[in-house]
From TrEMBL:
Keywords: Membrane, Transmembrane, Transmembrane helix
Protein name per the record: SGNH hydrolase-type esterase domain-containing protein
Organism: Aphanomyces astaci (Crayfish plague agent)
The keyword Lipid biosynthesis is annotated on this UniProt entry: no
SUPFAM superfamilies named among the record's database cross-references: SGNH hydrolase
Alphabetical list of InterPro entries matching this protein: Iah1-like (IPR045136), SGNH_hydro (IPR013830), SGNH_hydro_sf (IPR036514)
Gene3D superfamilies cross-referenced by the UniProt entry: SGNH hydrolase
């Protein structure tokens, strides 16, 4: 009798073997899920750390791309047009991989228009100071005195001086180069301009440059010397804006002045960045 009772008791205490087999797959599934979560977490941590390291790593010293700003009126704005062989687009090509040429030409603007905005623009440049700023204004300032764009000659000179002063005050290492207005073709000009009056503004620009000891590209004189040739320098039936020949002349004279006065900023001298 005792033996039969022990067998009954053992049967009640011992768990069914089938239940043990049902739990094994569940444990395996849970383990696999846990392992997968660990792997995913490690991958995310690695990716995040890699991205942070790339964004936080500073650029190698001495490898920053110089900035060259060409500032002006419509002649500079349209100078970005490759169909006209624009002087600004040719400069960008000459400096490709060596410097960033930034065009700040605004059609219809004068020194009077630019001056109030100059402090804010200079402040914007503080994030990456320019190595050279060329100021190419005067073609609109030299409008006849009955035109709304006209700026008196004394004010024109004063505005140029103030622009140069602001740049030199904030960026002592920055080179400044003035560019005189080019000639006007009186025979075809459709705007209220006169070549003789533009000459006065060009000479004033040269005088400001000499007084402040900054470089000057005397476009008016260079254009005047070529005015009587068969090659027109202005857009046909316009007389003010430049065609491809005029733009190429600006480009050549601009680079020649840089090569002469600031040779380290010549495209031939600047190293290729990120080579």
């Amino acid at each position: 009798m005792a033996s039969s009772q022990d067998e009954v008791t053992a049967a009640k205490v011992s768990p069914p073997r089938a239940s043990h087999h049902r739990r094994c797959p569940r444990l395996l599934v849970h383990s696999a899920i846990g392992f997968g979560l660990v792997v995913v977490s490690l991958v995310l941590v690695f990716v995040f750390n890699s991205a942070f390291s790339l964004s936080a790593s500073p650029l190698p010293r001495g490898r920053s791309t110089p900035v060259i700003v060409v500032l002006g009126d419509s002649i500079t704005e349209y100078g970005e047009n490759p169909q006209l062989m624009g002087y600004a687009s040719m400069l960008a090509n000459a400096y490709v991989r060596r410097a960033d040429v930034v065009n700040r030409g605004s059609a219809g603007w004068t020194t009077r228009t630019w001056l109030p905005l100059f402090p804010a623009m200079v402040q914007d440049w503080e994030r990456k100071p320019p190595a050279l700023v060329s100021i190419f204004l005067g073609a609109n300032d030299a409008a006849v005195d009955t035109d709304a764009q006209h700026v008196p000659i004394d004010e024109f000179a004063s505005n140029l001086r103030e622009m140069v002063r602001l740049i030199q005050q904030v960026f002592p290492a920055c080179h400044v180069m003035l560019v005189t207005p080019p000639t006007v073709d009186d025979a075809t000009c459709i705007y209220p301009r006169r070549n003789a009056l533009t000459e006065v503004y060009a000479k004033s620009c040269v005088e400001v440059g000499a007084a402040l000891n900054v470089s000057v590209v005397d476009l008016w004189t260079a254009f005047q010397n070529r005015q009587n040739t068969t090659k027109r320098l202005h857009v046909a039936n316009d007389g003010l804006h430049l065609n491809d020949i005029g733009n190429e002349l600006v480009y050549d004279l601009w680079l020649a002045q840089v090569n002469q006065d600031m040779p380290l900023l010549s495209p031939r001298q600047l190293p290729i960045v990120f080579s």
